[in-house]
Amino acid sequence: MNASEIVRLVDFVKMGGLVPVIVQDAKNCAILMLAYMNAEALEETLRTRQLCYYSRSRKKLWRKGEESGHTQELVELRLDCDGDALLALVRQKGAACHEGYRTCFFRTFTEDGIRVIGERLFDPNKIYKKQPKQ
Amino acid sequence: MNASEIVRLVDFVKMGGLVPVIVQDAKNCAILMLAYMNAEALEETLRTRQLCYYSRSRKKLWRKGEESGHTQELVELRLDCDGDALLALVRQKGAACHEGYRTCFFRTFTEDGIRVIGERLFDPNKIYKKQPKQ
Predict the structure, then answer these.
(1) Of all helices (H) and strands (E), which one includes residue B53?
(2) What residue in B sits closest to A115 (Cα-Cα)?
């Protein structure tokens, strides 16, 4: 099916033009991040097979990895029962997180406090020209 | 750390009092669903160790499995880099999806159309007294 047929099946209304996208590593099933797409970002993702989101803070399309080189290649796209959430299985190059971790979910709550469990793959100060902002 | 310390670390502002929660099967890493919590739902989840959400359609707390018996026991809770998304690792009893599938993401986009890939574990008409609504 083509991109416009897919876009029509996604409910963008509930979140004012956006849909949340769970991004999962196709190789090891790790959850890499949660981001948002508008219809245009979804169309571009399907056309290029490279993940493209809508940045809520910058209010524009955000081609993942355009600055860092840490791109995500789309392997498979799934839709949930209500049509208001997507699951993208991807091939992640480098780190998904702008803080240099493989996954954005690198902190876990424990009885003693919040603990970093992810491995830092790069120093963000060396990758981004300006202060990273997602 | 206690529930109120955890709640203070979560950014509920970006989504008007809610935070999205990715729910992952702690046993096999499958993504089960995406749901939302307000601060009260997060506190209750941490207190009872059973997943409790905020239903956007019913506009009230939604204790997962209260009608179906398909509860989710909290194993671990992770926070993302921006503090505006949670990842809950759970022990799922039965099916996560109100349509009877183990996971809500039981449909995948293929070249030929949308295809059901999940196994249906129960018939929702036999479980829910009224039309299921999440």
Answers:
(1) strand B52-55
(2) B78
pLDDT tens digit sequence for A101-129:
999 999 999 999 999 998 899 888 887 76
pLDDT digits (tens, 9 = 90+) for B21-39: 999 999 999 999 999 999 9
- Residue located via tokens 């300006």: A130
Provide the domain count of chain B: 1
B124 domain-assigned: no
The answer to whether residue B50 sits within a structural domain is yes
Range of the domain at B7: 3-95
pLDDT in tens, A65-105: 999 999 999 999 999 999 999 999 999 999 999 999 999 99
> What is the ipTM for the molecules in this complex?
0.94
Query: Which of A47, A51, A76, A77 minimizes the C-alpha distance to A64?
Result: A51
**For residue A31, which residues of chain B lie inside 8 Å, CB to CB?**
22, 24, 31, 87
Here the CATH number for the domain that contains residue A83 is 3.10.20.810
Taking CA–CA distances from B117, the nearest residue in chain A reads A78
- B49 within 8 A of B71, measured Cβ to Cβ: no
